[in-house]
Design a protein that fits this description.
With about 425 residues, the protein is of the alpha+beta class. The protein folds into 3 domains: about 180 residues, Alpha-Beta Plaits (2-Layer Sandwich); about 55 residues, 5' to 3' exonuclease, C-terminal subdomain (DNA polymerase, domain 1), CATH 1.10.150; about 140 residues, DNA polymerase, Y-family, little finger domain (Dna Ligase, domain 1, 2-Layer Sandwich), CATH 3.30.1490.100. The protein has 15 helices and 12 strands. The strands form 3 sheets. A 5-stranded mixed β-sheet has the order 5-6-1-7-8. Strands 9-12-10-11 form a 4-stranded antiparallel β-sheet. A 3-stranded mixed β-sheet has the order 3-2-4. Strand 5 and strand 6 form a beta hairpin. The radius of gyration is 23 Å and the shape is globular.
């Protein structure tokens, strides 16, 4: 199987059999780093780290040249530079990433309306209904890759298969700048030799549990009785893995995406022990989360926080609200309550706020009175000012001053919505 640095990649020949396929998984190659190279062609072919150029931010993305030194996303930039001292650190520009993502997603929708964005830089496409217009799935994948490169200057990797699960594995193996087609009849053979961790949703803990029983490949799963899988992974995960190992995946491409959560995190330039400063940072993040919820018409029923200490110990805490909200003040109050209950023996390196269990705004029945009416009015005015003058034009007085963190990107950023 291909690795994250591009070694061991597999691609299909021009005459590859695509019988029975119709699902494409398209994944942009090192997207953030590639956009940075578009803006500065002098970076091409060099090890690039996208992250805060100063302080202790984390790696948002890295070019394949940097990945070959062991650099990975979410790694502290300082650690990444120790692994790859010659790397060039580029500050993330989320506006540019969204701009290029919109171009890419528009190209996808030119081939089929059945596009399911997974994030800003990857999507599933169902092209089974596009054969008469564009040809076979393999031909569509080649045309799509050529158009993306021609119109954006960016490369992508595409997996073509009969199911979403297999298409995603195929695109991963073909990276970077590759195309891998797995025919329906060839699915079992394709999967058999893959490591168990290649199965979608099988994380490190599940891999460890399977390895403890000597189950290392998909072929091993096929030979394992279902009750053993259930005892090892739990009944729900056991059933899922049993089906995925057999190439069975009933999930369809969903053009409407329901957000599961909205969050922001900040890694500080220096560890912070002052509780008042930390509380103000939670307030800053809560306001950003609330603004994103309102922008997209969501309310949250649960608020969670993350605190990472100087020794990298990380805690998460959550609280279910009496009523769902998109009000930053309410989100910040909940974050403060959660934070105040944490035993803080060390300075803090990172904090985060996340809104969970989302639902469309206004879906809940209104109460007899609205405790948040005043704050809702204030924050609505702030949204208007932001739309007119830009982010940061108006903010809380206690949040003024120099940023303490490293320009962290929103967690799991979504692709732009279609106009």
């Amino acid at each position: 199987m291909g690795r994250g640095d591009g070694t061991g990649r597999l691609t299909s020949p021009a005459d590859a059999d695509d019988t029975g396929t119709g699902i494409l998984h398209v994944d942009m190659d090192a997207f953030y780093a590639s956009v940075a190279t578009l803006d500065d062609p002098g970076l091409r072919g060099k090890p690039i780290i996208v992250g805060a150029p100063e302080g202790r931010g984390v790696v948002s993305s890295a070019s394949y040249e940097a990945r070959r030194f062991g650099v990975r996303s979410a790694m502290p930039v300082g650690q990444a530079l120790r692994l790859c001292p010659t790397a060039i650190v580029v500050a993330p520009d989320f506006g540019r990433f969204l701009e290029e993502s919109a171009k890419v997603m528009s190209i996808f929708r030119d081939f089929t309306p059945l596009v399911e964005p997974l994030s800003i830089d990857e999507a599933f496409l169902d092209v089974r209904g596009a054969r008469r217009l564009w040809g076979r799935p393999g031909e569509i994948a080649r045309m799509l890759r050529a158009r993306v490169l021609d119109e954006t200057g960016l490369t992508c990797s595409v997996g073509v298969a009969a199911t979403k699960h297999v298409a995603k594995i195929a695109s991963t193996i073909s990276k970077p700048d590759g195309l891998l087609i797995v025919s329906e009849a060839g699915t079992a053979e394709f999967l058999a030799g893959r490591p168990v961790g290649a199965l979608w949703g099988v994380g490190p803990k599940a891999v460890e549990a399977l390895h403890a029983r000597g189950i290392r490949t998909v072929s091993d799963i096929l030979q394992t009785p279902r009750p053993v899988l259930d005892r090892t992974l739990g009944s729900a995960m056991g059933e899922r893995v049993w089906h995925l190992a057999r190439g069975s995946d009933a999930r369809q491409v969903q053009t409407e995406h329901l957000e599961k959560s909205v969050g922001h995190e900040e890694t500080f330039d220096v560890d912070i022990a002052d509780a008042d400063i930390l509380r103000s940072e939670f307030r800053r993040l809560a306001d950003r989360v609330g603004a994103r919820l309102r922008k997209h018409g969501w309310e949250a029923s649960t608020i969670s926080i993350k605190v990472r200490f100087a020794d990298f110990t990380t805690l998460t805490r959550s609280q279910t609200l009496p009523d769902p909200t998109a009000v930053g003040q309410r989100i910040g109050d909940a974050a403060h309550e959660l934070f105040d209950d944490i035993d803080r023996r060390l300075p803090v390196r990172l904090v985060g706020v996340r809104a969970e269990k989302l639902r469309p705004a206004g879906e809940s029945a209104p109460g007899l009175w609205d405790d948040d009416a005043e704050w809702r009015s204030i924050e609505g005015a702030l949204d208007g000012a932001t739309a007119r003058f830009g982010t940061g034009a108006v903010t809380r007085a206690n949040l003024l001053g120099k940023s303490r963190g490293g320009r962290t990107l929103p967690s799991n950023p979504r692709a732009p919505r279609e106009n």
